């Protein structure tokens, strides 16, 4: 039951007046809001507005009967009788909805496993980088910040999902559940988790950007990063996301201050934090192509007679750089959330969630397979 439904129900309970004589008490049965009904009367109310297929059943009604004893009539199995045949969804549509829900649950399990594995890999890598003094250099400091951004992103996503499930995903079992779910504390806590997650996602992408700039500086521009320039990377990775997250928070508070800020009714506000991700990914892609060109020319120059050998090495370098630079984002750069529907949307969601959550594991595996030892600073 969504917060919008709960708010509507909560408001209706105070709008209904008390009838005279014997009547059945008002109630909310987790499907519709029923007013106080005189004994012996069949009450008809419109199909609930929150039904996904509401447009098809908007003229229908759902019924209950108040018994002559002032109690809602019950079926033989003890359940309160309710006729909602006019509000039911067509079987074909219902099966599609069930399939979609199961698919989303599978997707969530997939990226939860991915982020959990990534967390273990990242924490191990970060401990190694911080433990050995020979690994303390600007290059590895940049790597460490990227690892940290991955860790924060993984933790933020898991915490956000947990809070969404805890506050908005459970069933209403007693009246206090309604007030608790609509409480200011529940909404604020969930929104804070949402904001932190969006900041961590942006920071992660801009540390991708920092890694790309660093590789470009070393391989192509032959510029080595000193401590002063390292601060610029700090500002880029941790500071740039604030330039977009803060305006997004303001827009949400003023224009879409609903539930957990997880639903984007006006996609223009979503683009405040989506645009910088796509911009960084596009620039990363250009740097990626430039670096591949340099690697290709160097491999060909060092091994001009063994075309197959350097082609294979180029393929390995490409596979390593794709997750490192976040190049997978570019694949769907023009397939926006507004444009993708049906199967294409499922493909995009699966591809994005899989790569994003398993990104670290993929990179670490590739790096391990092509490494011959530890490279000190």
TrEMBL record:
The chain crosses the membrane at residues 109-130, 206-225, 232-251, 271-292, 313-334, 346-365. Keywords: Cell membrane, Disulfide bond, G-protein coupled receptor, Glycoprotein, Membrane, Receptor, Signal, Transducer, Transmembrane, Transmembrane helix. Signal peptide: none annotated. One of its GO terms (biological process) is cell surface receptor signaling pathway. This is Gastric inhibitory polypeptide receptor. SMART domains: HormR. The keyword Glycoprotein applies. Residues 21-91, 107-371 form the G-protein coupled receptors family 2 profile domain. One of its GO terms (molecular function) is peptide hormone binding. SUPFAM superfamilies: Family A G protein-coupled receptor-like (SSF81321), Hormone receptor domain (SSF111418). Belongs to the G-protein coupled receptor 2 family. One of its GO terms (cellular component) is plasma membrane. It is found in: Cell membrane. It is a multi-pass membrane protein. It holds the Pfam family HRM.
